[in-house]
UniProtKB/TrEMBL annotation:
Taxonomic source organism: Ancylobacter defluvii
The protein's name in its UniProt record: DUF935 domain-containing protein
InterPro entries in the cross-refs: Portal_Mu (IPR009279)
Pfam families, A to Z: Portal_Mu
Feature: compositional bias, Pro residues: 429-448
Region annotation (Disordered) ranges: 426-448
Length: 546
């Protein structure tokens, strides 16, 4: 029976219900360290400052690192695009619940979790949990809801990682800053901490933003230099000319004209003066160098986040490479989904069940991921080829795989059930045409319209025509006759081979052997004649019925 009070954790220890259902703690404050206003360490970032930020994060002070990770996502469209692609890919795949066994109570636990999934609380929070891909970890505060019969999360609130520090011992356990700036440990029943490391070691050093920050900084240098290059050499240099008799007022006039023509694209000068536009040669080649460098940095980001570049950078003739890269992307999807499933099962699902039903020996398992299924094209091709060979598949399985709905049917006029239908299997033999009792057997109409080649073949193999496929039967009969003729010839050669003492003797015996191919020639002649007649009859039928 479902429990409501007291609430026990997964170890059977009672939990203070008031503390569990208390208001949130990880919220911003107007005064204090949990400020919603963030710094921007990416402004004027240099290699020495970036290295200092990473060292501080690895030493337990990740504030500037988390701020930098946010800056990179907000300033680099490519990094934001590929990182969001990876997070959205896992956020949209199916979520299922597997019961711990076939016992009715275990099934009840699984149904309880499924009912909670239907509230979409988890669906709205998966993207936030995957923020750990970039930063190494993400923290969500659980807002519990207690009702008679169950205790479930009402909401999973994303917490700004800037409000947390790392413990001084392991440098891997997040601690919440309170209103006074004191670090306090997290209540395991109130928070979900998801770690998503790209490498082994500390979580803070396993986020992709740590590696991406270097590429982003060098790319920022490239874009800055590119902008300066375009500003200096993107427009032709304007040179004003004046003669030696020009006064200071004339010089000022031509100077103002040169300056104004850049923005206004219009100016007036005396007729004795001129303006020359000098274009920089090879400026396009210099600009291409910056573009290639920036694109190269983007490709490194794609490899870092997605494991490949085919889905972000189109290349001609790369279909086969793209298929391989798609497998890499699916591998990352399975890895991300497995880590997320493990976190949810350990830190959320088991607690839900324990708070509602009491501690259990076995808990239902939440699974995030696509089922291991063959592509639809492979399934359809297999059915088309293996069905006629005897493969039988339940119709419901095929319809579910294709996303179709079976037509409602009744059994024996009743609406209580549906028969199990099978797709595939060997094609049954054609049913004989029923005789019409009103027509004498001798005048029974044929099942198919009579044709010239059909009558010809029927008359030739009338004694052997057990099936309506006359051409196949005729072919089999001629093959048997030819096999007999060939067997007679090979028997004579085999006898000489067995009687020969050596290779020279064998060659002499074969030279003296007079093989009679008359029977084989007769069979081949009949086959050629019949093939010719069938072909002519088919032409006549086509002309008659076409």
């Amino acid at each position: 029976m479902a429990r409501f009070s007291p609430i026990l954790d997964i170890d059977g220890k009672p939990i203070d219900k008031a503390a569990l259902l208390d208001e949130r703690k990880a919220v911003p404050t107007l005064t204090g360290v949990r400020s919603p206003i963030s710094g921007h360490p990416a402004d004027g970032l240099r290699p020495d400052r970036l290295a200092a930020i990473h060292r501080a994060a690895a030493s337990g002070d990740p504030l500037r690192y988390f701020e930098l990770a946010e800056d990179i996502e907000e300033r680099d469209p490519h990094y934001l695009a590929v990182l969001s692609t990876r997070k959205r890919q896992v956020s949209q795949i199916p979520v299922t619940v597997v019961a711990a066994g076939e016992d009715s109570q275990l099934e009840e636990h699984a149904d309880f979790v499924r009912q909670w999934l239907a509230t979409n609380v988890l669906a709205e929070s998966q993207f936030d949990m995957l923020d750990a891909i970039g930063k190494g970890l993400s923290i969500l505060e659980i807002e519990w809801e207690a009702r008679p019969g169950w205790v479930t999360p009402r909401c999973l609130h994303w917490c700004d990682p800037r409000w947390f520090a790392l413990d001084d011992v392991s440098l891997d356990e997040p601690l919440l800053y309170d209103a006074n700036g004191t670090k306090e440990p997290l209540d395991p029943n109130r928070y979900v901490v998801h770690r998503h490391k790209a490498k082994s070691g500390l979580s803070i050093r396993g986020g992709l933003a740590r590696i991406a920050s270097w590429s982003w900084m060098y790319k920022a240098f490239t874009l800055r230099d590119w902008n300066i290059f375009v500003q200096n050499y993107g427009m032709p240099i304007r040179i004003g000319k004046y003669d030696g008799a020009a006064s200071e007022a004339d010089k000022e006039t031509v100077f103002q004209a040169v300056r104004s023509i850049a923005g206004d694209l219009a100016a007036i000068i005396p007729a004795s003066m001129s303006i020359e536009f000098v274009e920089v040669k090879n400026a396009a080649d210099g600009s291409a160098l910056y573009e290639k460098r920036a694109d190269w940095m983007d490709r490194q980001i794609s490899k870092l986040v997605l494991g490949q570049t085919a889905t972000t950078d189109a290349a001609p003739g790369s279909h086969a490479i793209g298929s391989t890269h798609r497998l890499v992307q699916e591998d990352l999807e399975r890895f991300d989904a497995a880590l997320l499933s493990a976190t949810l099962n350990r830190q959320l699902i088991r607690k839900m069940v324990a708070f509602t039903f009491g501690p259990q020996e076995k808990y239902p398992t939440l699974v995030i991921g696509r089922p291991d299924e063959l592509p639809i094209g492979v399934v359809v091709e297999a059915l088309a080829k293996l069905g006629p060979l005897g493969l039988e598949v339940e119709e419901s399985q095929v319809l579910d795989r294709l996303g179709f709905t079976a037509k409602a049917e009744s059994v024996d006029g009743k609406t209580g059930g549906k028969p199990v239908r099978v797709i595939g299997g060997r094609a049954p033999a054609p049913a004989p045409v029923p005789a019409d009792p009103a027509v004498p057997p001798a005048k029974q109409p044929p099942a198919q319209p009579p044709t010239l080649h059909g009558r010809l073949l029927a008359s030739l193999i009338e004694l052997h025509a057990a099936e309506p496929d006359h051409v196949e039967l005729l072919t089999n009969r001629l093959s048997a006759e030819a096999a007999g003729a060939i067997a007679g010839l090979s028997l004579q050669v085999r006898s000489q081979f067995e009687a020969a003492s050596d290779m020279t003797d064998l060659m002499a015996r074969i030279d003296r052997l007079k093989l009679d191919a008359g029977e084989l020639r007769e069979v081949m002649g009949r086959a050629m004649a019949l093939a010719y007649m069938v072909g002519q009859a088919a032409i006549v039928d086509e002309m008659r019925h076409g």
